[in-house]
Every structure is written in structure tokens, then in C-alpha cells.
Amino acid sequence: MKKIRYILSLAVVGITMCACSDDYESYEELRDYENSRLSSFLDNPTCGEIKGKKINVISEKEFLKDTITDVSKNEFVLLENGVYMQIVRRGCGSILKDGESATMICRFKEYNINGDSLQLYNDAPKTDQFYYDKIEVVRNSGKFIPSWSLKEDNTGYQSSMYSCYYKYCAQYYETPTVPQGWVVPLSYIKLGRPEKESDEIAKLRLVVPHEQGHNFADRNVCAFYYEITYERGI
Question: Which of 55, 110, 114, 209 falls 20 to 30 Å from 14 in CA-CA distance?
């Protein structure tokens, strides 16, 4: 319970700094503000592992030549759906095939770029109660369809984002939908579990606009920055 309260306190801090909609702001005004904040964040990221490192945006056409984003140059590809993506590690295992389904374990830090605040995270150290988010994902005709996995196991698993939706900050996050921007990278990364010491799970950095985010992001026209890993579940 102590850990959950800490997660909630971060969420409240981030939310109070978001440009939430009210009766006097039109969608166009909120979208203009989001675009302004996105532009500022790309020029000078103010949070996470890329703090202070200008994001160099490459086109999707350029990216598709080799599907590489040069981390040393802090390259992010701007995808067609508006998500900015940097592949830090492609991961072990294999790319999810069409018609295949899998359980996916995600550990992340979520930053609200309107206030540059850490809003939610689930990468608590193993010495504390361990949080992660499990997602069931199906690839169907090239599209990835995600949903929260609510199966409990003997590790004391709790989904931090799902719990936030339902138990601790429901008034902020509301409807429990997986951010669509989270599954965008699955066309380019491998989903697996380490089998030998040299194996690493996939790691990405994402800037997700409100249309591709969770319901709080969409309702308040807020973009979020994520540092997130992907591992195939059992």
C-alpha cells in the first residue's frame, strides 16, 4: 500500500500541471497548446534519460530504409500516427507475426511533458513490491489490438496503470484502455524473454500525442513521454 500511495502522489503532481480543458478552452486551443509544448520538448527535453538532449526527428521514409534510430544522435522517427519513437534496444526473441497473440510485460516511466513531471511509473526495485503492466496483444492484419491482462499470479502482480484507472486515481485516468501508442513499436521490435546473459529485452522511448494515449491524455489533450521496456510474458 505504501508504494501505491507514492505512485498516486506522482500522478496527482503531474495532473495538476497539465493543461486540462475547461469551459473556456476549445479543442483547437488545447491542440495548439499541445503542439507548442511538443515543439518545445523536441527542442529541449526536460525530463527522463534524454533531458537536455535535443531530439533529432527523422521521417518515416528515412527510418524504413534500415528501421534504425541512432541513439547517439538522439534520433526519433515521426510515425504516420503522430507518435515519435526511438528504438534503444530491438530486443531478443522475434517480431510478433500476423495472427499471433502474446502476453507482454511492460515496465515504464510516464512523464507529462506539459509540466515535465514524472506522473506514473512501475519500475520499482525488486527489494520493494514489484509492479509491472501485463498486456494481451493480438496482431490481426497488421494491426495490434491490446487489452490489459488481469490474471493474477503468485508474484503479487499488480498493474500500476490499471490499478490507477480503477482504484487510486480513477477520477484522473478513468476508462481502462491501453495507450495505443504503446503497441506502435511492435512492428519493429522483437518480443522475447532472455535465455542467456547477452540477451536483452526491447527498450524504447516514445513521445505519444493525446490521440494515441490513454483516456486522460485524450480528454485533456496532453502529450506524454515514455521510457518503456517490452518483454514476452509466460
Answer: 55
Neighbours of 223 (CB within 10 A): 26
Query: d(Cα 78, Cα 86) in Å, to the nearest integer?
Result: 9
The C-alpha cell 523536441 sits at 42
C-alpha distances (whole Å) from 51 to each of 27, 111, 113, 121, 203 are 29, 12, 12, 17, 17
135 neighbors 149 (Cβ within 8 angstroms): yes
CA–centroid distance for 152 within its chain = 22
140 beta partners: 143
Alpha-carbon distance values, 222 to 132, 159, 173, 174 (Å) = 23, 22, 12, 15
Place of cell 511538443: 38
Dist CA 60 CA 81 (whole Å): 11
Query: Which neighbouring-strand residues pair with 120?
Result: 110
pLDDT tens digits for 9-27? Answer: 344 444 444 544 455 689 9
How much is the pTM?
0.85
* Closest to 116 (Cα-Cα) out of 43, 209, 33, 51: 51
Tens of pLDDT, residue by residue over 43-74, are 999 999 999 999 999 999 999 999 999 999 99
Burial of 95 (0-12, 13-18, 19+ CB in 10 A): middle
36's enclosing H/E stretch is: helix 27-43
Separation of alpha carbons 177 and 180, rounded Å: 8
